[in-house]
Write a structure and sequence with these properties.
single chain; 217 residues; mainly alpha; 12 helices; 63% helix; elongated
Length: 217
């Protein structure tokens, strides 16, 4: 349906995008995979809007953006926002109030340990793939839930909180600044993600002549 309408709307511009019937067949398959979960009325509305906004046939990415503008994308955060949230709370996923259950499930499928320890270059592509699959399930009408767990008292977390509070007072920093800079202390020792967060924080602290601690002292 979509390609038939694009052909009628864009005429020779549409035909110039494909040199052979094989290219059209491959493109149709890719579009079908990318649009799983969207209903026909939503696709029709998106094509109508593209007709007004684009002089040439839109790319898949552009068409998906139009769909999200029309449908609100079921409240789903962007891939980048979801990845940042999953990485930030990968150390205690059951204790975090997730912006959307899809983020939790994508993080679980990717692997919390990987999100805590591996570099963005290695784990981000896998998370993106898992998140897009989960999002397709949400758009198809599936309801996802985050398991509810009773959090046990964590004395280590209490000690870390007290340390961050005391350290911030010693350096005359606002509590939120101290917590932001020392967030890396919540990550596993020796992990790449811990070092990445520490490096980013140290760049900001250096501007005020402050050296961040390697660990709780």
């Amino acid at each position: 349906m979509i390609f038939a309408r694009f052909m009628a709307i864009y005429g020779h511009k549409f035909k110039s995008c494909f040199e052979t019937q094989d290219e059209i067949r491959i493109a149709k398959r890719e579009w079908a995979l990318s649009l799983q979960g969207y209903r026909e009325p939503e696709l029709v509305a998106a094509v109508d809007l593209c007709k007004q906004q684009y002089a040439w046939m839109p790319t898949i990415a552009e068409f998906l953006q139009v769909l999200r503008e029309l449908t609100g994308d079921s409240g789903l955060p962007s891939v980048q926002q979801a990845y940042q949230e999953a990485g930030r709370y990968a150390d205690a996923p059951s204790q975090h109030h997730w912006s959307h259950p899809a983020v939790y499930h994508a993080g679980k499928l990717t692997g919390w340990f990987r999100l805590r320890t591996e570099t963005d270059l290695r784990v981000m592509p896998d998370f993106r793939q898992q998140y897009e699959r989960v999002c397709q399930r949400v758009r198809a009408g599936e309801t996802l839930e985050v398991p509810s767990h009773q959090a046990l008292p964590d004395h280590q977390d209490q000690s870390l909180f007290a340390f961050i509070q005391q350290w911030g007072e010693q350096h005359q920093l606002a509590p939120e600044v101290a917590s932001k800079w020392l967030f890396y202390l919540t990550k596993p020792k020796g992990s790449q993600v811990r070092e990445r967060f520490r490096k980013q924080a140290q760049e900001q602290a250096t501007e005020q002549g402050i050296t961040l601690p390697d660990d709780i002292t």
